[in-house]
Amino acid sequence: MSASCLVSIIIPIYNAVKYVQQAIDSCLAQTHDQVEIIIQDDCSNDGTWELLNKLYADESKVVLFRNPRNLGIGENWNVAYAKATGDYFVIFNGDDIMHPNMVAGFLSRLDSDSTLDIITGKFEVLVTGTSRTFVYPDHVGLVGGLVSNLYSQLYFRSAFHWNFSLVRKELLKKVEFDDGNLFLNTQVCDYELWYRCYLEGAKVYFDDTQIWGYYRRHESNSSSKPNGETRSFLKDFLDYHQDSFKNKSGFNYTTMLARRFLSFCNNTKHFEKDVFYLYVKRLAQSVL
């Protein structure tokens, strides 16, 4: 059944000229033949767009789009998502590497159990400059199989990554916002989508049978920006989900938030006033 299914690999890109060819080539190398690779460039200014056209303008599986202006992470991801037509989706980064059998392997797993919504796989971190790799820390000791504790894997953690996941279109349609968008316009939009899938009751399978890809760590990662993800989590994510965090975890939520607040305050190098006040606001809300 899965051999004829179209899989949409959406790749929102911004300034990835150093790594984008390896990322896209890993998608083109998939043993599952029925893929569309939708690339949405968010007005890159480092030569990414020019390289994409040079390399892939005539590649039938690759479709290139560029925004007329820079939209930011969440909005760019939404524009890419709106163009996809597949039955299954991979949401990929323009600087990472996918194992050639990932799509076929995950489709096979979904075929074997029609109740599963998402297959997500074990991956390694690739450190640019040294080429050193290591297993993603949240996967150390994580046993493969049906994820029975999805909430705990998402509670102040990022146990899974969309890069190395295959998700049914039916689930994504269920968790879209009222305006049809899939992503919140914020830096941690990928994490927020995982949490919305949890709230929808998504059935997730973790495949640890091999390493399914490489998440590249380099100086330009959005996650490497001081306080970027923290600010996004406190300001935008918790606007939507603080009540569910608080109701599910009770006082443990306040305790965890307080620990992170103290750690932030002790890091004087990256201390920023707006993040300090966001922490204070969320801590106050957690006990009221």
Give your account of this protein's structure.
This protein has an eight-stranded mixed beta sheet with strand order 3-2-1-4-10-6-11-9, sandwiched between helices. The mean pLDDT is 93. Helix 8 (228-249) packs antiparallel against helix 9 and helix 9 packs antiparallel against helix 10 (273-287). It contains ten helices and twelve strands. It has 288 residues and is α/β, with parallel strands linked by helices. The protein has helices spanning 20-28, 48-56, 73-83, 102-112, 150-154, 169-175, 189-199, 228-249, 251-266, 273-287, and strands at residues 7-13, 35-41, 62-66, 88-91, 97-98, 118-121, 124-127, 132-135, 145-146, 165-168, 204-207, 213-217. Strand 7 (124-127) and strand 8 form a beta hairpin. The chain starts with 6 loop residues before the first strand and ends with a helix. Helix content is 40%, strand content 18%. The longest helix has 22 residues, at 228-249.
Detail the topology: elements first, then pairings.
Layout: E1 7-13, H1 20-28, E2 35-41, H2 48-56, E3 62-66, H3 73-83, E4 88-91, E5 97-98, H4 102-112, E6 118-121, E7 124-127, E8 132-135, E9 145-146, H5 150-154, E10 165-168, H6 169-175, H7 189-199, E11 204-207, E12 213-217, H8 228-249, H9 251-266, H10 273-287
Parallel strand pairs: 1-2, 1-4, 2-3, 6-11, 7-12
Antiparallel strand pairs: 4-10, 5-12, 6-10, 7-8, 9-11
